């Protein structure tokens, strides 16, 4: 990879390679853009196949955070970090304290939090070395239920746009992934009267959803073929790709997963198929809204969270309107709105 060429293309400000042999730490911190404030974004721990995969992931995720934070009207820039290692085997106090020291050395330019492979317990060790960490237990805590709430509000906004009503009673939603966000979302949808089709790679999770929410269970691959109103990806990225896009029988795609489209060309393909796509970094912004309250120092309460979450349906409607008016994809419209907020003029 020609790193500086990629950094130019993706417009990153700073990338820090963190190496602490004694602690076994190999991490990368990417600060994408700080025009709106310090770069906030979680720390992912993953056993990447290659170092290049780790670099690509942190660059893509940190850029996404700039767009997400701008869209949520937060006084924050975008950043992200990755620790290279197996989260089931390589975690230790020493590792996370070493990571915390690197975060601290950036003097507040980057604020970390939990992400895939890390949890509030790990962040407790990070916090021993730096105050630039959020999402701690006893403060804003696990953001997943709030992310789910934001996605739920987003699905209602999509329904209102397409079907003329935000009431989702009897609307059929296919949820892919019943983890922290997916299971909470399934609960909210069920309570609102939606009918659920679900999948996960873990048997116990689908059994739980079947029992609690009367959900119809399908295999991990079948989820792309089911007749439904809404397909809600809540597992992995790049699920809208050349193998899946023609199979989808939904009218709306609205879920929590980051980077749902394999690349931008799939936004056009969805539009050609008359499928309304709720851009991922707009609909899944609830988690960062939750963490931002802790960072801002405002006393944390559900009332504040609920009020701030309203930006998700509002932004989605702006995106859909712009896409319709300009004849562009919803992904492009979201990018244009976000860039108008964080890019310096002139
Ligand atoms: P999680 O790891 O708790 O849940 C993911 C679930 O997906 C797991 O149950 C897993 O078994 C399942 N899964 C994995 N591969 C699958 C496959 N091929 N088919 C079906 N199911 C599969 O993660 P999470 O915290 O619930 O996050 C879900 C997604 O939302 C991730 O992409 C994450 O980046 C994104 N996201 C999460 C938050 C948050 O607050 N947690 C915020 C923004 C975005």
UniProtKB/TrEMBL annotation:
Q: Which residues bind NAD(+)?
A: 177-182
Q: Please name the InterPro entries in this protein's record.
A: Aminoacid_DH-like_N_sf, Glu/Leu/Phe/Val/Trp_DH, Glu/Leu/Phe/Val/Trp_DH_C, Glu/Leu/Phe/Val/Trp_DH_dimer, Glu/Leu/Phe/Val_DH_AS, Glu/Phe/Leu/Val/Trp_DH_bac/arc, NAD(P)-bd_dom_sf
Q: Which residue intervals define the domain Glutamate/phenylalanine/leucine/valine/L-tryptophan dehydrogenase C-terminal in the entry? A: 141-346
UniProt xrefs under SUPFAM superfamilies: Aminoacid dehydrogenase-like, N-terminal domain, NAD(P)-binding Rossmann-fold domains
Active site at 80
Q: Name one GO molecular function term.
A: nucleotide binding
Q: Which PROSITE patterns match?
A: GLFV_DEHYDROGENASE (PS00074)
Q: Which leading EC class covers this enzyme? A: oxidoreductase
List keywords of the entry alphabetically: NAD, Nucleotide-binding, Oxidoreductase
Matches recorded under Gene3D superfamilies: Leucine Dehydrogenase, chain A, domain 1, NAD(P)-binding Rossmann-like Domain
Q: Which GO terms describe its biological process?
A: amino acid metabolic process
Q: Which CDD domains match?
A: NAD_bind_Leu_Phe_Val_DH (cd01075)
The protein's Enzyme Commission number: 1.4.1.9
Similarity field:
Belongs to the Glu/Leu/Phe/Val dehydrogenases family.
Annotated protein name in UniProt: Leucine dehydrogenase
Gene name of the record: ldh_1
